[in-house]
Amino acid sequence: MTTVTEPAEAGPLPAKPWSGGGREELAAAVRRLTALTVTATAAPDVLAGAAERATALADELELCVPEVGPVPTGRFADHSVRPEEVDTLAAAMPFDMVIGSCNPVALPITIEFEPPKAIGSAVFTAPYEGAPGCVHGAVLAGAFDIMLTAANVIANGAGPTVELSIRYLRPTLIAQPARFEAWVTALDSRRTHSEGRLIQGGVVTIEARGEFVNMEPSRIAAMHRRDDTAVAGGSGGQAPPTDST
Q: Count of H helices and E strands in the chain?
């Protein structure tokens, strides 16, 4: 039986404590395997053999999960997102299910800041399909949650999601370039309101609106560290129930 030992104290965490140790590379390999799982037309014996090897790999990695649960310790750095650093939104959330470089289910979205707008570029592949040939609506809703958050970062008004409204105008197609645009429409000391749209082939396919808690960066960083002094809230970026009035 393999015993998992706690790492020795090594001083302050680097800017990207999750990077360079193979975790991002593993996530990239699993993303590739995920895509092939739904697109490969291999023979049954080939698929069965791949499943057996994948199971063996999962068994090997499972031995390295700490007894306290699947969340690796020390994965967040003590910094907050700053608008002048284009890559910090993804860097602040490396395990995020939408843009996390260490999460194999993350969407193929690249976000850039063009103040006052946040711009996202994506070509959705087969794993994100809903109706045949179309991107699943839930995938696009998750993408807009991040895109509106990126716009909030530019306006220094980022925080957990209170409400997200999606209006699907036309199907968004798989394997076709898609452009997200998001911007802040109103901002005060408590709330940030943002809007966005998705453009594909010169046509707007989705419009989105969101309301977010305007939270101090230090409180966001505390939430990332799972700090007990942070505002208690649910998973998935939703706002704490006590702060939704």
A: 5, 6
- The pLDDT tens digits of the residues spanning 162-189 come to 999 999 999 999 999 999 999 999 999 8
Does 64 reside within a domain?
Answer: no
The total domain count for the chain is: 1
Contact by Cβ (8 Å): 191, 162: yes
Please name the amino acid found at residue 140.
Answer: L
In a domain, 32, yes or no: no
Asked whether residue 162 is assigned to any structural domain, the reply reads yes
pLDDT in tens, 133-143: 999 999 999 99
Kindly report, residue by residue over 52-103, the tens digit of the pLDDT: 999 999 999 999 887 766 555 444 444 444 444 445 677 777 888 999 888 9
Is residue 126 included in any domain, yes or no? yes
pTM: predicted TM-score of the whole model, two decimal places:
0.75
Task: List the domain range (segments joined by +) for residue 133.
Answer: 88-243
User: E strands, the chain, where?
Assistant: 109-114, 117-123, 161-168, 177-187, 191-200, 203-213
Give the CATH number, domain containing residue 225: 3.10.129.10
**Alpha helical stretches, state H, the chain:** 23-39, 44-62, 88-92, 137-154, 217-224
231 vs 237: CA distance, rounded Å: 12
| Residues 6+ away with beta carbon under 8 Å from 114 | none
**Residues 119, 180 contacting (CB under 8 angstroms):** yes
